[in-house]
Amino acid sequence: MSESLHPVDMALIGAYAVFLVYVGIRLFGEARQETVEYLVMGRRLALPSFVATLVTTWYGGVLGVGEYSYRYGLSNWLVFGVPYYVGAALFALFFARRARESRLYTVPDQMARAYGRPAGILSAAVLQFLSSPAPYVLMLGILIQMIFHLPLWACVLAGVFFSTCYSLRGGMRSVVQADNVQFVLMFLGFMIALPVLAWRFGGWAFLRSHLPPEHFVWHGGNAPQYIFVWYFIALQTLVEPTFYQRAYAAATPEVARRGVLISIGFWALFDFLTTFTGMYARALMPHLANPTESYPALALQFLPAGLRGLFYLGLLATVMSTVDGYTFIGGVNFGRDLVWRWRGEASESRVNTYTQWGFLITAAVSVALALFFRSAVDLWHDVGSVGVAALLLPLASSYTERWRMRPRAAFAAILLGGGASLGWLLWARTPGAGGHYPLGLEPIYAGLAASALAWALGGGPMRPEVDRT
Question: How far apart, in Å, are the Cα atoms of 338 and each of 109, 112, 361, 362, 398?
């Protein structure tokens, strides 16, 4: 579809690519700095950059949002919006300050401090999959394919390269500097596109007359249990390494708390823009073969040259900011929490090197997963179901002596919670199951029940006096 893009559009995209390479060159030597500088910016992340990097990194699933709003309309806000606002608010109120005051680097650091080295390593293994950028790598590949009309595998590889070339050596500082620009671009693209579409075709009355009635009801035609399960999956926020890494890097505990609360407002605004833009895509292109392509197709057919390029930049910036953030998190998790912790090294002198190797491994695995799964929404559902079931109870209870699990119970809760949820998912994919879960129960419920059972059978929470001894 490159023939549909005006040279002005291509120039804007080219300038963006040059900017990303420039960031990488400018901060090329950061990997030689101390671990605290490379991993968490020396804990000097100020409030504006905190908001920009958290908003952009956490909201990478823009094409998945387009797919869902195209299919189900306003229900998108209740599925991919409100549950995550609640989760983010809970993190801000109960965990942000504590995370910053702990002066740790990662979630497995907290698990190891509370429950010992085995729990730290096991939680790192779970997070290696939970923080996979695979869904966003898939979206990025689809987006680039629509611009250049190349094979998907080639577009996925190109997208990963340009999303990560600056953060491998530059560390978190390069991620934040890129996110500051990507924050502006992601909002600019949709704030231009939505008013143009409303002006050309009409507003609420146009949408009401061109969309199915289900697009204007809370469930969008889906079963209530399917909607409700996303409110549990959204509790992923409480174990999400993106939030913890930004909190660990914040200049002060108050920056961490306020930054998350301010970010919720920006996510709500962006959900408004993306939901209604997706509904315009359905109204104008009711027979689109692949709804994942709704936003790019809408731009190609209904936006003029120049504005089309800005909208594409908004899409690219939204997705790429998440690919770079999650690939870096995956590298940190692999390098520090798996390799370094497993080897039991007293010195952190090799952590940065291990992290870079983990960075490359995370990128490679995400490419493979992106080419295997073809639905970003399915990836979110499955990965979130396993990760939340494994980590929610042990991590949430690790910050207080009153509710902290015993070490063996915590290890069992991680193993059984994630294992039960994974087993539920695999069962539904067996030939005889026909895609149905055992007992008709969503995997995350089975996993959380198994995690709670491990906690109870392990003797419940530790008493403060036992913990001190």
Answer: 11, 12, 13, 13, 20
Q: pLDDT at position 464, please?
A: 47
Q: 275-311: per-residue pLDDT in tens?
A: 999 999 999 999 998 888 899 899 989 999 899 999 9
Residues in the chain: 469
Average pLDDT, the chain: 87
Instruction: Name the token pair of 241.
Output: 């390494």
Q: What is the CATH number of the domain that holds 349?
A: 1.20.1730.10
> Which whole-number Å values give the CA distances from 13 to 7, 89, 314, 317, 429, in the listed order?
10, 35, 10, 10, 40
> Average pLDDT in the 369-375 region?
73
Pick from 240-254, 322-336, 360-374: least confident: 360-374
Whether the CB-CB separation of 52 and 197 falls below 8 Å is answered with no
Q: How far apart are the first and last CA of the chain?
A: 67
Give the separation between CA 243 and CA 156, rounded to whole angstroms: 26
Predicted TM-score (pTM) of the model is 0.88
What is the reported pLDDT for 369? 81
Has residue 383 been placed in a domain?
A: yes
The secondary structure of residue 400, as a DSSP letter, is -
pLDDT in tens, 96-153: 999 999 999 999 999 999 999 999 999 999 998 878 888 888 888 888 888 888 898 9
In angstroms, rounded to a whole number, what is the distance separating the alpha carbons of residues 173 and 37? 8
What is the number of domains present in the chain? 2
Q: Is residue 101 part of a domain?
A: yes
Closest CA to 317 of 3, 8, 20, 5: 20
Tell me the DSSP string of 192-252: HHHHHHHHHH-SHHHHHHHS-GGGGSTTTTS-HHHHHHHHHHGGGGGG-HHHHHHHHHBSS
| CB-CB contact of 89 with 261 (8 Å) | yes
Report residue 384 as tokens. 């979130």
- Lookup: tokens for 264: 């919720």
Q: Amino acid identity, residue 1?
A: M
Question: Concatenated DSSP letters for 398-419?
Answer: TT-TTTPBPHHHHHHHHHHHHH
pLDDT at 459 over 80: no
Full residue range of the structural domain in which residue 462 is found: 400-469
Give the span between the Cα atoms of 5 and 316, in whole angstroms: 15
